Prior knowledge:
Blueprint (H helix, E strand, L loop, with lengths): L1 H16 L3 E3 L1 E3 L4 E5 L4 E3 L2 E3 L5 E10 L2 E7 L2 E2 L16 E4 L2 E4 L8 E11 L2 E14 L6 E3 L3 E3 L4 E6 L8 E6 L2 E2 L7 H5 L4 E4 L4 E4 L8 E8 L6 E2 L3 E6 L3 H28 L1 H29 L1
Parallel strand pairs: 1-12, 3-12, 14-22
Antiparallel strand pairs: 2-5, 4-10, 6-7, 6-11, 7-8, 9-10, 11-12, 13-15, 15-19, 16-17, 16-20, 18-19, 20-21, 20-22
Amino acid sequence: xxxxxxxxxxxxxxxxxxxxxxxxxxxxxxxxxxxxxxxxxxxxxxxxxxxxxxxxxxxxxxxxxxxxxxxxxxxxxxxxxxxxxxxxxxxxxxxxxxxxxxxxxxxxxxxxxxxxxxxxxxxxxxxxxxxxxxxxxxxxxxxxxxxxxxxxxxxxxxxxxxxxxxxxxxxxxxxxxxxxxxxxxxxxxxxxxxxxxxxxxxxxxxxxxxxxxxxxxxxxxxxxxxxxxxxxxxxxxxxxxxxxxxxxxxxxxxxxxxxxxxxxxxxxxxxxxxxxxxxxxxxxxxxxxxxxxxxxxxxxxxx
Length: 303
């Protein structure tokens, strides 16, 4: 009985200590907003409750590093309350009632935003919030293509095409001599064309497991993601030549023949004693030179 009475007293004190908090009906026209870069985005936030209440509106941006104020104390702020970098919406954003219009959006504006509305009335404190995700769509930039200038038949050749600025990520299409290459699906026209390569539209690679002379040509790649204009890399030529087996054999035989002839020449010179004669002559010259020096020294001593 005593414990029950103590619990009732604690509940009563709690009710006196904290104001009555009830929810506000808040909704948004679109909780997943998408806008192209350098265009306009609208983050809507609408509320419903009785008149005669004092409103307080705040907008915040939620990121992995923390939460920063976007709209606070009736103005857009450049100074982040948390450890996040300063925002740059001041001068580009304006309030639409309780929503926000952002002009000239950039990829840095992408993220999750939260609209928070609080209101005071005789009944107590009323709170409500809505979360909106803004995704800024970015057109592709010029991709970087890697195409070998030459290759030998039968080799494995891989071409690559990549750009990293677009959002959503680009897909890639390869062209040979101005004609779009087919994607290998194993059915329909792709099978009929007897494709000898594999094109990956997601990664941008073009793989030849065994390249042939028919693969010689001018190649380029195009990146697109449905935003803005597609972008192409410069045209690069790949020349495929047959491996000259007979030429290689002839070169090996020629080198072997030269080595054999050189060996025979050395053997013949040794047999004839050319190296021995040269050595004897050198020793004789050295002896004569030494004798002359000794004679001069002796003569000088006698005098």
